[in-house]
């Protein structure tokens, strides 16, 4: 545990065994998003992943928040979906965390509108997609009417 | 995790102020149950102020933000002033980048300052045996 007075956002789960080897990235992992509880599971998994990759506290919060927005989008608008975590490295050796959020829902009819703050077809605030884009370094969407939606976002560590 | 919503943080009454908080695992049902319980208590107890401690929240996404904004509005319609206290700095940074300013929601650095804004003052410790003269 952190000393008193220090912020800690470390996950509360049991500590992972340390890897004495050359810090090989964890294998990609997928999580279903079918229920409210799944949203919590995704958040916990993403939090643990951000700690694993070595993000600072603010970046941890950014990535978990983006994951929460995208997973909720898949749950509310896509009728459920899947969140996959990947651990890429860029050519400079920086570590990153990539979230791939897919659903087989109706797709996004007007992507530009969906990326505009305040636009919502649901009960949220309309900041989910555009907000997630701002919170991450890389962002792409593949969608269309009847084609479902796939959002891929990546955040890189500073070094 | 199924069935009844998890009982959250208790709602305490200090005079005409209600003091409560939010836990990290806020889902839809918990949020609705929290809003309902808090508004019932405001009405039943004639509360004029509500302090909500959010220092346990590691993430505020747009769903939680909407809950806080709606809760504040409902309380205001009932005549109570809500102050949200103790937001973590990374959460504040992330909310701004998300584009959510929690318009209409009053905030305080910590519960103590929130309570002070709601009219509570930290009185100096009364001397031993000097309590006979107090109103209570």
UniProtKB/TrEMBL annotation, chain B:
STAS domain location: 16-118
InterPro entries assigned: Bact_StressResp_Reg, STAS_dom, STAS_dom_sf
Highest taxon listed in the record's lineage: Bacteria
PROSITE patterns tied to this protein: STAS (PS50801)
Signal sequence, renumbered to the chain: none
Name recorded for this polypeptide: STAS domain-containing protein
């Amino acid at each position: 545990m952190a000393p008193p007075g220090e912020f800690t956002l470390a996950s509360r789960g049991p500590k992972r065994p340390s890897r004495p080897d050359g810090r090989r990235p964890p294998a990609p992992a997928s999580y279903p998003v079918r229920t409210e509880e799944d949203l919590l599971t995704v958040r916990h998994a993403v939090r643990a992943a951000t700690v694993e990759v070595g993000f600072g506290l603010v970046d941890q919060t950014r990535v978990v928040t983006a994951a929460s927005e995208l997973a909720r989008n898949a749950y509310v608008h896509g009728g459920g979906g899947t969140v996959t975590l990947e651990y890429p490295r860029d050519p400079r050796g920086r570590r990153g965390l990539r979230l791939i959020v897919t659903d087989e829902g109706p797709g996004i009819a007007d992507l530009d509108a969906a990326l505009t703050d305040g636009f919502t077809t649901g009960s949220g605030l309309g900041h989910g997609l555009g907000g997630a884009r701002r919170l991450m370094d890389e962002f792409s969407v593949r969608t269309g009417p009847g084609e479902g939606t796939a959002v891929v976002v990546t955040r890189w560590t500073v070094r | 995790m199924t069935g009844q919503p998890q009982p959250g943080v208790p709602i305490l009454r200090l005079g005409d102020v209600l003091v409560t908080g939010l836990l990290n695992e806020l889902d839809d049902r918990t949020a609705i149950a929290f809003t309902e319980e808090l508004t019932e208590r405001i009405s039943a107890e004639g509360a004029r102020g509500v302090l909500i401690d959010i220092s346990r929240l590691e993430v505020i996404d747009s769903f939680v933000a909407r809950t806080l904004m709606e809760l504040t509005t409902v309380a205001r319609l009932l005549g109570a002033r809500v102050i949200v206290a103790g937001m973590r700095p990374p959460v504040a940074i992330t909310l701004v980048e998300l584009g959510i300013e929690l318009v209409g929601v009053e905030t305080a650095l910590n519960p103590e300052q929130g309570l002070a804004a709601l009219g509570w003052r930290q009185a100096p410790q009364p001397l031993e045996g000097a309590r006979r003269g107090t109103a209570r």
